[in-house]
Amino acid sequence: MSDFLNAPEASQPGEHAGSVDHHPGVSVRHTRAKGEPRFPDGPKADPAGSHFERRIRSFQPRRSRVTAGQADALQRLWPKWGLDIDGQRVVDLAELFGNDNPVVLEIGFGMGEATAQMAGGDPGTNILAVDVHTPGQGNLLNLADQNGLSNLRVGNGDAIILLREMLAPDSLDGLRVYFPDPWPKKRHHKRRLIQPEFLSLAATRLKPGAIVHCATDWEPYAEQMLEVLSAHPDFENTQDDGGFAPRPEFRPLTRFEGQGLDKGHVVNDLLFRRVQR
Q1: Least confident window among 18-27, 42-51, 200-209
Q2: How are beta strands 206-216 and 235-237 bridged, if at all?
Q3: Over the stretch 225-247, which tens digit does the pLDDT of each residue have?
Q4: CB of 41 closer than 8 Å to CB of 148
Q5: What's the rounded Cα separation, in Å, for the pair 14 and 36?
Q6: Among 72, 86, 181, 217, which one carries the catalytic annotation?
Q7: Cβ neighbours of residue 256 under 8 Å, at least 6 residues apart?
Q8: Which residues are CB-neighbours of 95 under 8 A, at least 6 positions away?
């Protein structure tokens, strides 16, 4: 699942890892000394730290292993293509990408295969892809490197802090949220990302005409997304019938999605436009 809920605590190679024979695809284990960072030149474990208030979050920490190839990509490519979401500055997106091309924010990218495919299919659009899943960050950086995708940047941390503290008004040309955690239990619905408050924040950072594209295979969440987006004054449905949209060609059919379809799951896409108020 490509969702924004995975915060890993995996082992990784440290300064003494050079004595280990690493092979791509092999999980890396290393006992770190107290205070030793997981990736000295890579993403920070908690970039925003305690600078911001505690709140209910839409993502859930979990432990996950980092392969040697992913660790190498994080160490080698993070200084070039990574962004720690610390909330301490407003990001100049033209400077971040090195051009003035349109920028789309993707929240939650899993292992990054679909994100890399979309970046490769539309080199004129910059994608700022945000997640907290370290193996996925490393994998996406690897894919970007292998495929020469200079229009990809990987953000590490809380997308709410990025939107609220680090992006200028009207700076985004699109927002993508694919297969977020559905938080199926009723008592957890407050953790779902697509809520009126989130949409109000996102609207301030989206240019008029920008497209919000959501997709989910959890039908009750799809219905809630449709209801919340339809009721929000800053957005209008691109579908004349006011319903779900066909999957656009630019969104790849992922392996996860294909497995769900094989099991009879229904995948719904929602395409809403930021309106001028």
Answers
A1: 18-27
A2: unpaired
A3: 999 999 999 999 999 999 999 99
A4: no
A5: 8
A6: 181
A7: 1, 2, 110, 179
A8: none
β-bridge partners, 77 = none
Contact 179, 270 (CB under 8 A): no
**Rounded to whole angstroms, how far apart are CA atoms 166 and 157?**
12
SS3 for the chain is CCCCCEECCCCCCCCCHHHCCCCCCCECCCCCCCCCCCCCCCCCCCCCCCCCCCCCCCCEECCCCCEHHHHHHHHHHHHHHEEECCCCCCCCHHHHHCCCCCEEEEECCCCCHHHHHHHHHCCCCEEEEEECCHHHHHHHHHHHHHCCCCCEEEEECCHHHHHHHHCCCCCEEEEEEECCCCCCCHHHHHHCCCCHHHHHHHHHHEEEEEEEEEEECCHHHHHHHHHHHHHCCCEEECCCCCCCECCCCCCCCCHHHHHHHHCCCCCEEEEEEECCC
Q: Hey, what's the torsion of the CAs at 70, 160, 196, 126, to 10 degrees?
A: -60
Distance in angstroms (rounded) separating the CA atoms of residues 216 and 223: 10
Please check whether residue 174 is in contact with residue 211, taking contact to mean a CB–CB distance below 8 angstroms: yes
pTM for this prediction? 0.81
Active site residue 181: yes
> Locate tokens 């800053």: which residue?
234
